[in-house]
Write a structure and sequence with these properties.
Mean pLDDT: 90
Helix content: 40-55%
Largest sheet: 6 strands, parallel
Number of strands: 6
Order of helices and strands: EHEEHEHEHEHH
Strand content: 5-15%
Number of domains: 1
CATH superfamily: Glycogen Phosphorylase B
Strand order of the largest sheet: 3-2-1-4-5-6
CATH architecture: 3-Layer(aba) Sandwich
CATH topology: Rossmann fold
Length: 160
Amino acid sequence: MIFVTLGSQKFQFDRLLKEIDRLIKTGRITEEVFAQTGYSTYQPKYFLYKNFLNREEFKKCIEKSSFVITHGGTGAIISSLKIGKKVIAVPRRGEFGEHVDNHQLQLLVQFDELNLVSACYELNDLEDHLIGIGNLEFAAYHSNTEKIVASIDQFLSSIS
């Protein structure tokens, strides 16, 4: 199963859902697809979806998936990487009313340079990313949360 997640911010990402529908309709995607569509208004015709998932449902969908297609938000990307899933990330674009600006494009450049995701900068290239995702090898994701918490702890201890 391919899991598509579009986050929970109050922005639509209809372009991505329509492209996935098109790829299923034309037989380019044959694997089952399930999506968490968030605030998108487009209702997929060729795959199952739910607007929002709770944390447990979200985690189960990632675990069950062969890979994840997501917007360029850090939460969805990192959640998928922590579980060891390959990720195709497509940035929301300000010019399409999908976000307030193009910061997701900038974030994806960083994830791409670290070789953590398959960054699909242009939606027209999604089919190529789908074809290639199985053959790609990505760098392992390493969280630095513990290091940050330890650093804050050390700082707080020094001022008390």
